[in-house]
Amino acid sequence: DTTRESPSSEWWRGDMALRRLLQGIVLPRTTGRHVGASFSTEAGETIRATLFPGDGIGPEIAESVKQVFNVAGVPIEWEEHYVGTEVDPRTESFLTWESLESVRRNKVGLKGPMATPIGKGHRSLNLTLRKELGLYANVRPCNSLPGYKTRYDDVNLVTIRENTEGEYSGLEHQVVRGVVESLKIITRQASLRVAEYAFHYAKANGRERVSAIHKANIMRKTDGLFLKCCREVAEKYPEITYEEVIIDNCCMTLVKNPGTFDVLVMPNLYGDIISDLCAGLIGGLGLTPSCNIGEGGICLAEAVHGSAPDISGKNLANPTALMLSAVMMLRHLQFNDQADRIHNAILQTIAEGKYRTADLGGKSSTSDYTKAVCDHI
Amino acid sequence: MKLADGLFLESCREIAAKYPSIEYNEIIVDNCCMQLVSRPEQFDVMVTPNLYGNLVANTAAGLVGGTGVMPGGNVGQDHAIFEQGASAGNVGNDNLVEQQKANPVALLLSSAMMLRHLQFPSFADRLETAVKRVIADGKYRTKDLGGTSTTQEVTDAVIANLD
């Protein structure tokens, strides 16, 4: 039998709960080992990274990132992959097995916006990536951009969202007509894993406080377990302040006084909502970087905005979100010097206000803005 | 959550069909929160399932000044109970109670809602107008609104402003 045994073969399909149980046995203990995989390079050695330019404005903004990386002298060699036009049966998706293998091999990648193909018989692109690469934490730093005014000036926080379970376990069923049940699954393994990453991230990035966001007063067992796991991890990082904040309070405080938050770690649903809320605080998805952390130290940075087909190919798109995501990728690779230089160049360009794309109220084209960023490096 | 929230949407659509003069649309909750913090003025009435409603109500409360100013009510088949609209942290703490600095606005406005529910619109209007005047004047404001007044001072001001 020459078919590769991939997680998408028939054998795996079936009871999700069973699959999860098996994963718990099969996967190695994740504490410590999966985070901060070291990418040491000898001078002159390049790192290979997978690039998914994506659809719509994707290719244009990916081009901007490549230009900026060249100017900054980042030793990265890109392996480009595109979403295919046919469903690959090995992945049940328009993303081929080869493109996924590329990320697994390189352990690091950058993804542009991908349009969701319509129809049945295949998994959504995001779901495919998440499952196949074991992406378990979605990390979004939200920082107020100097020079781009929103109602909030002092936002400087990071949302870390558990991305594999919780309310999005996909386990729903109809009990009788008009009555539906949806299962929320919280496991010790997934909660510990995301909490470990959150504290590791906080320590590695000089952050002082980690807040676990929950509704354990109502969902005592699920959110209660999540909190228990966070507390366990917190004990190992005594230098980092740990607190627990009820989701209602969190929402209200975010819109009244977002400067009080530092790192937030949350289960899936709250994370989804809060991370988008925070993106709104600083100016929207067009400016927000994001990266997904997977098993074995995989980091897939991505722009979370849409593919904007209406402005695609017109040199109007704002590449900031993808650029900032690429910066996150560099920091993960510990290329901190280049990351800082590129980051500062972007901030300066926006702050100066001379070169801004249309979505930020300016008139510059993608290429002009990109050139301005390059000039500032 | 296709089945659960799907059922909720189906039900909303059924009812919306009976009110053609009222515009009806649907928005995913994460997008909703993002829009709330950037352009809240686009929203009018929002109907949600339980958990999202909690989040959205508290976000909205934060936008307008906090749980101390947002009124609310709970409506059931046979009864209605009115109380402040969002829950986050305004049960208060011992300090607040001791120093008598809690903000009465939320509960005052909730009682105006109750009066409206009982079909006393003129009383409701008078109360609401008085409260709004006091807040607009800015002289008597509790700590959560940036002032130093006590509960009693704000209440007296409202009474003084009643037509």
From TrEMBL, chain A:
SMART domains: Iso_dh (SM01329). One of its GO terms (biological process) is tricarboxylic acid cycle. InterPro entries: IsoCit/isopropylmalate_DH_CS, Isocitrate_DH_NAD, IsoPropMal-DH-like_dom. GO terms for molecular function: isocitrate dehydrogenase (NAD+) activity; magnesium ion binding; NAD binding. It comes from the Eukaryota. Keywords: Magnesium, Metal-binding, NAD, Oxidoreductase, Transit peptide. Residues 46-373 form the Isopropylmalate dehydrogenase-like domain. One of its GO terms (cellular component) is mitochondrion. Its cofactor is Mn(2+); Mg(2+). SUPFAM superfamilies: Isocitrate/Isopropylmalate dehydrogenase-like (SSF53659). Belongs to the isocitrate and isopropylmalate dehydrogenases family. PANTHER family: DECARBOXYLATING DEHYDROGENASES-ISOCITRATE, ISOPROPYLMALATE, TARTRATE, ISOCITRATE DEHYDROGENASE [NAD] SUBUNIT ALPHA, MITOCHONDRIAL. This is Isopropylmalate dehydrogenase-like domain-containing protein.
Automatic annotation (TrEMBL), chain B:
GO terms for cellular component: mitochondrion. Pfam families: Iso_dh. Residues 1-158 form the Isopropylmalate dehydrogenase-like domain. GO terms for molecular function: isocitrate dehydrogenase (NAD+) activity. GO terms for biological process: isocitrate metabolic process; tricarboxylic acid cycle. InterPro entries: IsoPropMal-DH-like_dom (IPR024084). Belongs to the isocitrate and isopropylmalate dehydrogenases family. This is Isopropylmalate dehydrogenase-like domain-containing protein. It comes from Aegilops tauschii subsp. strangulata (Goatgrass).
